[in-house]
Q: What sequence folds into this?
């Protein structure tokens, strides 16, 4: 680890405007920050990083010995380290951080590398992080054409579930209309025997709709289906590099294909 980072508190969260991951540290009373990843790669489930207001999804504390502790910035944030949900945990350079509902993933090594680049610009001196070596010609290139079908299937099934939930909510809203109508009609039942018959019909129609809506709600598996669909999507919508296989986020394929490559392993995507 770069010794210029010792004693620093690092803010980590979503860039408010461009939707990238943002890391920020303070030096001599001023905030310095830099993004990680491509625009739109971080979902809204990751809290915003606003250095001027000391807001973030989580904070990385680095003591004067270089030991690191990751802590949620607030209780409602969802943060995992190496697959385990945490509120506060000691971590090392090999740890993997996941944030938000869709578990946006970043390695601690990537965060430290970005912080070192900040330190190079604003502090100077110290020990620089190696870039990893290798020329651009040796960077592997992969096709992501197959991911279009993966995203389209996820989107279509997700919309199907949402439409079914909407229709169920509409059905629930219809039942009280019949009940209210039967009550209103019963008040004028003395006018005609036909009105009494109408009241009876409206009552039983309302009762039938209510029972049917209750049955549909009880047997509805939308939440489970959506969880399973999301889990499958996270396993399929990943970097094509066999050595990486990181989840690429809930981003439409039309945006993903605009990226030059994977933000994790730095492989290139075929154009």
A:
């Amino acid at each position: 680890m770069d010794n210029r980072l010792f004693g620093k508190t690092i803010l980590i969260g979503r860039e408010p405007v461009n939707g990238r991951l943002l890391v920020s540290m303070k030096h001599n009373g001023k905030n310095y920050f830099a993004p990680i990843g491509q625009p739109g790669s971080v979902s809204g489930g990751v809290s915003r990083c606003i250095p001027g207001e000391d807001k973030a999804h989580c904070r990385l504390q680095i003591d004067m010995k270089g030991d690191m502790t990751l802590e949620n910035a607030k209780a409602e944030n969802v943060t995992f380290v190496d697959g385990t949900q945490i509120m506060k945990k000691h971590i090392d350079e090999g740890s993997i951080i996941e944030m938000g509902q869709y578990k946006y993933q970043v390695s601690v090594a990537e965060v430290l590398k970005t912080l070192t680049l900040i330190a190079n610009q604003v502090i100077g001196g110290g020990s620089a992080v190696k870039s990893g070596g290798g020329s651009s010609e040796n960077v592997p290139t992969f096709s992501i054409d197959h991911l279009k079908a993966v995203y389209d299937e996820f989107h279509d099934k997700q919309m199907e579930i949402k439409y079914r939930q909407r229709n169920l909510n509409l059905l629930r809203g219809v039942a009280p209309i019949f009940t209210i109508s039967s009550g209103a009609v019963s008040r004028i039942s003395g006018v005609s025997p036909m009105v009494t018959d109408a009241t009876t019909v409206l009552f039983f129609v309302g009762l039938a709709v209510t029972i049917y809506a209750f049955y549909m709600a009880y047997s509805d598996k939308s939440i489970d289906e959506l969880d399973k669909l999301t889990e499958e999507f996270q396993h399929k919508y990943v970097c094509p590099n066999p050595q990486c296989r990181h989840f690429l986020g809930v981003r439409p394929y039309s945006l993903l294909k605009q990226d030059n490559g994977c933000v994790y392993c730095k492989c290139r995507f075929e154009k």
The first strand starts at residue 9 and ends at 14. Residues 146-269 form one domain. The two ends are 36 Å apart (CA to CA). Residues 140 and 267 are 5 Å apart (CA to CA).
